[in-house]
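Notes to self after the Tuesday call (sharing in case useful).
The group wants a holo model before anyone commits to mutagenesis around the pocket. I volunteered. Ligand is uridine-5'-diphosphate. Logging inputs and output together so the record is complete.
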Amino acid sequence: MKQILITGGAGFLGSHLCERLIEQGNEVLCLDNFFTGSKNNIIHLLQNPHFEMIRHDIINPIYLEVEQIYHLACPASPVYYQYNPIKTIKTNVMGTINTLGLAKRVKAKILLASTSEVYGDPDIHPQREDYWGRVNPIGIRSCYDEGKRTAECLMMDYRRQNGVNVKIVRIFNTYGPRMAVNDGRVVSNFIVQALKGEEITVYGDGSQTRSFCYITDLIEGLIRMMDMPDNFPGPVNIGNPAEFTIRELAEMVIRMTGSRSMIAFKALPEGDPRQRKPDISLAMDMLGWQPRVELNEGLEKTIAYFRNIIKHKS
Ligand code: NAD
Ligand code: UDP
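Result:
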Protein backbone atom coordinates (compact mmCIF):
# COMPACT_ATOMS: atom_id res chain seq x y z
CA MET A 1 0.00 0.00 0.00
CA LYS A 2 1.42 3.36 -1.09
CA GLN A 3 0.48 6.92 -0.13
CA ILE A 4 -0.37 8.57 -3.45
CA LEU A 5 -1.24 12.21 -4.12
CA ILE A 6 -3.31 13.09 -7.19
CA THR A 7 -3.44 16.81 -7.97
CA GLY A 8 -6.53 17.57 -10.03
CA GLY A 9 -7.99 14.36 -8.59
CA ALA A 10 -11.61 15.54 -8.79
CA GLY A 11 -11.41 16.10 -12.55
CA PHE A 12 -12.26 13.75 -15.38
CA LEU A 13 -9.00 11.79 -15.55
CA GLY A 14 -8.14 12.30 -11.88
CA SER A 15 -11.35 10.78 -10.54
CA HIS A 16 -10.83 7.59 -12.58
CA LEU A 17 -7.24 7.42 -11.39
CA CYS A 18 -8.30 7.85 -7.72
CA GLU A 19 -10.73 4.96 -8.13
CA ARG A 20 -8.23 2.68 -9.84
CA LEU A 21 -5.40 3.32 -7.35
CA ILE A 22 -7.71 2.66 -4.39
CA GLU A 23 -8.84 -0.60 -6.03
CA GLN A 24 -5.17 -1.56 -6.24
CA GLY A 25 -4.92 -1.17 -2.46
CA ASN A 26 -3.33 2.28 -2.12
CA GLU A 27 -4.08 5.29 0.08
CA VAL A 28 -5.14 8.17 -2.15
CA LEU A 29 -4.97 11.88 -1.35
CA CYS A 30 -7.01 13.84 -3.87
CA LEU A 31 -6.13 17.52 -4.13
CA ASP A 32 -8.33 19.89 -6.14
CA ASN A 33 -9.60 23.47 -6.21
CA PHE A 34 -12.80 22.41 -8.03
CA PHE A 35 -12.27 24.81 -10.92
CA THR A 36 -13.29 22.27 -13.56
CA GLY A 37 -13.48 19.25 -11.29
CA SER A 38 -16.43 18.38 -9.13
CA LYS A 39 -17.24 16.69 -5.83
CA ASN A 40 -19.74 14.56 -7.75
CA ASN A 41 -16.85 12.85 -9.54
CA ILE A 42 -15.46 11.50 -6.27
CA ILE A 43 -18.52 11.50 -4.03
CA HIS A 44 -18.63 7.70 -4.04
CA LEU A 45 -15.11 7.62 -2.59
CA LEU A 46 -15.62 10.10 0.26
CA GLN A 47 -16.63 7.41 2.79
CA ASN A 48 -13.72 5.17 1.83
CA PRO A 49 -11.11 5.09 4.64
CA HIS A 50 -8.35 4.88 2.02
CA PHE A 51 -9.41 8.14 0.36
CA GLU A 52 -8.95 11.74 1.47
CA MET A 53 -9.99 14.97 -0.24
CA ILE A 54 -8.00 18.17 0.14
CA ARG A 55 -9.44 21.42 -1.22
CA HIS A 56 -6.37 23.38 -2.23
CA ASP A 57 -5.13 25.56 -5.08
CA ILE A 58 -1.81 24.17 -6.28
CA ILE A 59 -0.44 27.61 -7.13
CA ASN A 60 0.17 27.74 -3.34
CA PRO A 61 2.70 25.41 -1.69
CA ILE A 62 1.46 22.33 0.15
CA TYR A 63 3.13 20.13 2.77
CA LEU A 64 2.17 16.45 2.80
CA GLU A 65 3.92 13.10 3.18
CA VAL A 66 3.45 10.86 0.13
CA GLU A 67 5.41 8.31 -1.93
CA GLN A 68 4.01 9.02 -5.37
CA ILE A 69 2.46 12.07 -7.03
CA TYR A 70 0.33 12.17 -10.17
CA HIS A 71 0.31 15.85 -11.14
CA LEU A 72 -2.87 16.46 -13.16
CA ALA A 73 -4.07 19.82 -11.82
CA CYS A 74 -4.80 22.09 -14.80
CA PRO A 75 -7.96 22.77 -16.80
CA ALA A 76 -7.76 20.72 -20.02
CA SER A 77 -10.61 22.06 -22.15
CA PRO A 78 -9.73 25.06 -24.34
CA VAL A 79 -12.91 26.81 -23.13
CA TYR A 80 -11.74 26.64 -19.50
CA TYR A 81 -8.01 27.09 -19.94
CA GLN A 82 -8.68 30.22 -22.01
CA TYR A 83 -11.23 31.58 -19.51
CA ASN A 84 -8.44 32.86 -17.23
CA PRO A 85 -5.22 32.30 -19.19
CA ILE A 86 -2.98 33.93 -16.58
CA LYS A 87 -4.32 31.53 -13.98
CA THR A 88 -3.72 28.63 -16.40
CA ILE A 89 -0.06 29.49 -16.83
CA LYS A 90 0.30 30.06 -13.08
CA THR A 91 -1.18 26.60 -12.49
CA ASN A 92 1.23 25.07 -14.99
CA VAL A 93 4.33 26.88 -13.76
CA MET A 94 3.83 27.65 -10.05
CA GLY A 95 1.66 24.58 -9.55
CA THR A 96 4.34 22.36 -11.07
CA ILE A 97 7.12 24.04 -9.06
CA ASN A 98 5.13 23.50 -5.85
CA THR A 99 4.43 19.87 -6.71
CA LEU A 100 8.06 19.25 -7.65
CA GLY A 101 9.18 20.97 -4.44
CA LEU A 102 6.99 18.57 -2.50
CA ALA A 103 8.35 15.58 -4.46
CA LYS A 104 11.91 16.73 -3.75
CA ARG A 105 11.31 17.24 -0.01
CA VAL A 106 9.66 13.86 0.58
CA LYS A 107 11.60 11.98 -2.17
CA ALA A 108 8.40 11.02 -3.97
CA LYS A 109 8.21 9.85 -7.55
CA ILE A 110 6.23 12.36 -9.65
CA LEU A 111 4.36 11.94 -12.93
CA LEU A 112 3.30 14.96 -15.02
CA ALA A 113 0.14 14.79 -17.13
CA SER A 114 1.57 16.63 -20.12
CA THR A 115 -0.18 16.85 -23.44
CA SER A 116 -0.04 16.32 -27.18
CA GLU A 117 -0.47 20.11 -27.33
CA VAL A 118 3.28 20.41 -26.74
CA TYR A 119 3.55 19.44 -30.44
CA GLY A 120 1.38 22.47 -31.35
CA ASP A 121 0.10 22.49 -34.94
CA PRO A 122 2.49 19.73 -36.02
CA ASP A 123 4.27 19.44 -39.34
CA ILE A 124 5.39 15.89 -38.51
CA HIS A 125 2.68 13.24 -38.63
CA PRO A 126 2.17 11.10 -36.58
CA GLN A 127 3.92 12.77 -33.67
CA ARG A 128 6.88 11.03 -32.03
CA GLU A 129 8.37 12.04 -28.70
CA ASP A 130 11.56 13.33 -30.33
CA TYR A 131 9.62 15.92 -32.36
CA TRP A 132 10.04 19.36 -30.74
CA GLY A 133 6.75 20.75 -31.91
CA ARG A 134 5.42 23.83 -33.67
CA VAL A 135 3.86 25.98 -31.00
CA ASN A 136 2.85 29.63 -31.28
CA PRO A 137 4.28 31.25 -28.14
CA ILE A 138 1.95 34.26 -28.31
CA GLY A 139 -1.34 32.63 -29.33
CA ILE A 140 -4.47 32.07 -27.26
CA ARG A 141 -3.54 28.41 -26.67
CA SER A 142 -0.05 29.18 -25.39
CA CYS A 143 -1.10 29.57 -21.73
CA TYR A 144 -1.78 25.85 -21.97
CA ASP A 145 0.70 24.47 -24.51
CA GLU A 146 3.65 26.67 -23.54
CA GLY A 147 2.55 26.17 -19.92
CA LYS A 148 2.86 22.41 -20.31
CA ARG A 149 6.18 22.77 -22.16
CA THR A 150 7.49 24.77 -19.20
CA ALA A 151 6.11 22.13 -16.84
CA GLU A 152 8.07 19.47 -18.79
CA CYS A 153 11.17 21.67 -18.62
CA LEU A 154 10.75 21.99 -14.83
CA MET A 155 10.39 18.22 -14.48
CA MET A 156 13.65 17.60 -16.34
CA ASP A 157 15.53 20.36 -14.49
CA TYR A 158 14.44 19.01 -11.09
CA ARG A 159 15.61 15.60 -12.26
CA ARG A 160 19.01 16.86 -13.45
CA GLN A 161 19.62 19.35 -10.64
CA ASN A 162 17.97 17.66 -7.66
CA GLY A 163 17.75 14.00 -8.64
CA VAL A 164 13.94 13.96 -8.44
CA ASN A 165 12.45 10.80 -9.94
CA VAL A 166 10.19 12.22 -12.66
CA LYS A 167 7.91 10.77 -15.35
CA ILE A 168 6.38 12.70 -18.24
CA VAL A 169 3.35 11.42 -20.13
CA ARG A 170 2.05 13.25 -23.21
CA ILE A 171 -1.66 12.54 -23.23
CA PHE A 172 -3.61 12.66 -26.50
CA ASN A 173 -7.36 13.54 -26.57
CA THR A 174 -9.02 11.30 -24.01
CA TYR A 175 -12.75 10.89 -23.48
CA GLY A 176 -15.22 8.90 -21.42
CA PRO A 177 -17.71 8.99 -18.57
CA ARG A 178 -17.35 11.87 -16.06
CA MET A 179 -16.39 14.49 -18.59
CA ALA A 180 -18.43 17.49 -17.48
CA VAL A 181 -21.61 18.14 -19.50
CA ASN A 182 -20.40 21.70 -20.15
CA ASP A 183 -16.71 20.72 -20.51
CA GLY A 184 -16.54 22.15 -24.04
CA ARG A 185 -14.29 19.48 -25.56
CA VAL A 186 -15.44 17.87 -28.74
CA VAL A 187 -16.60 14.41 -27.64
CA SER A 188 -18.75 15.62 -24.74
CA ASN A 189 -20.07 18.57 -26.78
CA PHE A 190 -21.19 16.38 -29.67
CA ILE A 191 -22.79 13.72 -27.47
CA VAL A 192 -24.66 16.23 -25.32
CA GLN A 193 -25.82 18.17 -28.38
CA ALA A 194 -26.99 14.98 -30.11
CA LEU A 195 -28.86 13.74 -27.05
CA LYS A 196 -30.58 17.09 -26.59
CA GLY A 197 -31.46 17.33 -30.29
CA GLU A 198 -29.41 20.53 -30.63
CA GLU A 199 -27.21 21.34 -33.60
CA ILE A 200 -23.81 19.66 -33.65
CA THR A 201 -21.22 22.45 -33.66
CA VAL A 202 -18.40 21.46 -36.00
CA TYR A 203 -15.69 24.10 -35.94
CA GLY A 204 -14.22 24.94 -39.35
CA ASP A 205 -15.03 22.47 -42.13
CA GLY A 206 -14.45 19.51 -39.80
CA SER A 207 -11.50 18.17 -41.81
CA GLN A 208 -9.09 18.63 -38.89
CA THR A 209 -8.20 15.34 -37.22
CA ARG A 210 -7.82 14.03 -33.68
CA SER A 211 -7.11 10.56 -32.25
CA PHE A 212 -9.35 9.62 -29.34
CA CYS A 213 -8.29 7.46 -26.41
CA TYR A 214 -10.79 5.87 -24.03
CA ILE A 215 -10.34 6.67 -20.36
CA THR A 216 -9.57 3.12 -19.11
CA ASP A 217 -6.74 2.73 -21.64
CA LEU A 218 -5.27 6.07 -20.62
CA ILE A 219 -5.35 5.24 -16.89
CA GLU A 220 -3.58 1.94 -17.54
CA GLY A 221 -0.86 3.84 -19.44
CA LEU A 222 -0.36 6.36 -16.62
CA ILE A 223 0.02 3.64 -13.99
CA ARG A 224 2.43 1.63 -16.13
CA MET A 225 4.57 4.71 -16.67
CA MET A 226 4.64 5.48 -12.93
CA ASP A 227 5.88 1.93 -12.31
CA MET A 228 8.80 2.26 -14.74
CA PRO A 229 12.35 2.31 -13.33
CA ASP A 230 14.09 5.61 -12.44
CA ASN A 231 16.15 5.67 -15.63
CA PHE A 232 13.09 6.17 -17.84
CA PRO A 233 11.63 9.66 -17.29
CA GLY A 234 9.95 9.78 -20.71
CA PRO A 235 8.35 11.73 -22.23
CA VAL A 236 6.10 9.03 -23.59
CA ASN A 237 2.99 9.44 -25.76
CA ILE A 238 -0.19 7.81 -24.49
CA GLY A 239 -3.06 7.90 -26.93
CA ASN A 240 -5.00 5.90 -29.47
CA PRO A 241 -3.48 6.16 -32.96
CA ALA A 242 -6.80 5.65 -34.75
CA GLU A 243 -7.29 9.05 -36.39
CA PHE A 244 -10.65 10.61 -37.30
CA THR A 245 -11.74 13.88 -38.81
CA ILE A 246 -14.01 15.94 -36.59
CA ARG A 247 -16.71 15.60 -39.20
CA GLU A 248 -16.45 11.79 -39.05
CA LEU A 249 -16.78 12.01 -35.26
CA ALA A 250 -19.91 14.15 -35.60
CA GLU A 251 -21.45 11.65 -38.01
CA MET A 252 -20.61 8.71 -35.74
CA VAL A 253 -22.18 10.40 -32.74
CA ILE A 254 -25.34 11.26 -34.69
CA ARG A 255 -25.63 7.68 -35.92
CA MET A 256 -24.92 6.07 -32.56
CA THR A 257 -27.31 8.27 -30.59
CA GLY A 258 -30.03 7.97 -33.24
CA SER A 259 -30.30 11.76 -33.08
CA ARG A 260 -32.05 14.04 -35.55
CA SER A 261 -29.51 16.80 -34.90
CA MET A 262 -28.02 18.56 -37.90
CA ILE A 263 -24.40 19.58 -38.25
CA ALA A 264 -23.80 23.36 -38.02
CA PHE A 265 -20.41 24.62 -39.16
CA LYS A 266 -18.96 27.33 -36.88
CA ALA A 267 -15.80 29.40 -37.01
CA LEU A 268 -12.58 27.50 -36.42
CA PRO A 269 -10.94 28.75 -33.19
CA GLU A 270 -7.58 30.54 -33.60
CA GLY A 271 -4.59 28.19 -33.52
CA ASP A 272 -6.68 25.00 -33.75
CA PRO A 273 -4.22 22.22 -34.77
CA ARG A 274 -4.92 20.69 -38.22
CA GLN A 275 -4.00 17.13 -37.34
CA ARG A 276 -3.00 15.02 -34.41
CA LYS A 277 -2.08 11.35 -34.06
CA PRO A 278 0.34 9.72 -31.64
CA ASP A 279 3.18 7.45 -32.62
CA ILE A 280 2.97 4.99 -29.71
CA SER A 281 5.98 2.79 -30.53
CA LEU A 282 7.80 3.98 -27.40
CA ALA A 283 4.85 3.16 -25.12
CA MET A 284 4.53 -0.25 -26.78
CA ASP A 285 8.26 -1.02 -26.43
CA MET A 286 8.90 0.39 -22.97
CA LEU A 287 5.56 -0.01 -21.14
CA GLY A 288 4.14 -2.93 -23.13
CA TRP A 289 1.10 -0.67 -23.49
CA GLN A 290 -1.37 -0.20 -26.29
CA PRO A 291 -4.99 0.92 -26.35
CA ARG A 292 -7.68 -1.77 -26.29
CA VAL A 293 -10.92 0.17 -26.65
CA GLU A 294 -11.94 1.26 -30.13
CA LEU A 295 -13.80 4.51 -30.70
CA ASN A 296 -17.12 2.76 -31.37
CA GLU A 297 -17.03 0.88 -28.09
CA GLY A 298 -15.81 3.86 -26.06
CA LEU A 299 -18.43 6.14 -27.56
CA GLU A 300 -21.15 3.66 -26.72
CA LYS A 301 -20.17 3.73 -23.03
CA THR A 302 -19.79 7.50 -23.02
CA ILE A 303 -23.16 8.01 -24.71
CA ALA A 304 -24.81 5.72 -22.12
CA TYR A 305 -23.23 7.83 -19.35
CA PHE A 306 -24.44 11.15 -20.76
CA ARG A 307 -27.90 9.74 -21.51
CA ASN A 308 -28.25 8.95 -17.84
CA ILE A 309 -26.93 12.33 -16.66
CA ILE A 310 -29.15 14.29 -19.03
CA LYS A 311 -32.23 12.23 -18.10
CA HIS A 312 -31.70 13.05 -14.42
CA LYS A 313 -31.11 16.75 -15.11
CA SER A 314 -34.23 17.31 -17.18
P1 NAD B 1 -10.26 18.34 -15.99
O1 NAD B 1 -10.43 19.79 -16.28
O2 NAD B 1 -11.48 17.49 -15.87
O3 NAD B 1 -9.41 18.13 -14.66
C1 NAD B 1 -8.47 19.04 -14.18
C2 NAD B 1 -8.60 19.09 -12.66
O4 NAD B 1 -7.60 19.98 -12.13
C3 NAD B 1 -9.96 19.62 -12.22
O5 NAD B 1 -10.48 18.81 -11.20
C4 NAD B 1 -9.65 21.03 -11.72
O6 NAD B 1 -10.56 21.50 -10.75
C5 NAD B 1 -8.25 20.84 -11.17
N1 NAD B 1 -7.47 22.09 -11.12
C6 NAD B 1 -7.32 23.02 -12.10
N2 NAD B 1 -6.53 24.02 -11.66
C7 NAD B 1 -6.18 23.72 -10.38
C8 NAD B 1 -5.38 24.36 -9.40
N3 NAD B 1 -4.81 25.56 -9.64
N4 NAD B 1 -5.24 23.77 -8.19
C9 NAD B 1 -5.83 22.58 -7.93
N5 NAD B 1 -6.60 21.92 -8.81
C10 NAD B 1 -6.76 22.48 -10.03
O7 NAD B 1 -9.31 17.78 -17.13
P2 NAD B 1 -8.78 16.30 -17.41
O8 NAD B 1 -9.19 15.93 -18.75
O9 NAD B 1 -9.09 15.40 -16.27
O10 NAD B 1 -7.20 16.55 -17.47
C11 NAD B 1 -6.34 16.23 -16.38
C12 NAD B 1 -4.92 16.53 -16.76
O11 NAD B 1 -4.55 15.78 -17.91
C13 NAD B 1 -4.65 17.99 -17.09
O12 NAD B 1 -3.39 18.35 -16.58
C14 NAD B 1 -4.62 18.01 -18.59
O13 NAD B 1 -3.80 19.04 -19.08
C15 NAD B 1 -4.04 16.64 -18.92
N6 NAD B 1 -4.47 16.21 -20.25
C16 NAD B 1 -5.73 15.75 -20.47
C17 NAD B 1 -6.12 15.38 -21.75
C18 NAD B 1 -7.48 14.84 -22.06
O14 NAD B 1 -7.77 14.59 -23.22
N7 NAD B 1 -8.35 14.60 -21.11
C19 NAD B 1 -5.21 15.51 -22.81
C20 NAD B 1 -3.94 16.00 -22.54
C21 NAD B 1 -3.58 16.34 -21.26
N1 UDP C 1 -14.45 21.03 -31.93
C1 UDP C 1 -15.59 21.14 -32.70
N2 UDP C 1 -16.78 21.38 -32.06
C2 UDP C 1 -16.87 21.49 -30.71
C3 UDP C 1 -15.70 21.38 -29.93
C4 UDP C 1 -14.51 21.15 -30.58
O1 UDP C 1 -15.56 21.02 -33.92
O2 UDP C 1 -18.00 21.70 -30.23
C5 UDP C 1 -13.17 20.75 -32.61
C6 UDP C 1 -12.03 21.69 -32.26
O3 UDP C 1 -12.05 22.83 -33.08
C7 UDP C 1 -10.83 20.81 -32.50
C8 UDP C 1 -11.32 19.40 -32.15
O4 UDP C 1 -12.75 19.47 -32.20
O5 UDP C 1 -10.46 20.82 -33.85
C9 UDP C 1 -10.90 18.94 -30.75
O6 UDP C 1 -11.26 19.96 -29.85
P1 UDP C 1 -11.12 19.79 -28.27
O7 UDP C 1 -11.53 21.10 -27.67
O8 UDP C 1 -11.84 18.58 -27.83
O9 UDP C 1 -9.57 19.50 -28.02
P2 UDP C 1 -8.20 20.03 -28.64
O10 UDP C 1 -7.59 18.82 -29.21
O11 UDP C 1 -8.46 21.07 -29.70
O12 UDP C 1 -7.49 20.60 -27.47
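Two things stood out.
Residues 3-175+214-238 form a domain with the Rossmann fold fold (CATH 3.40.50.720).
The chain has a mean pLDDT of 97.
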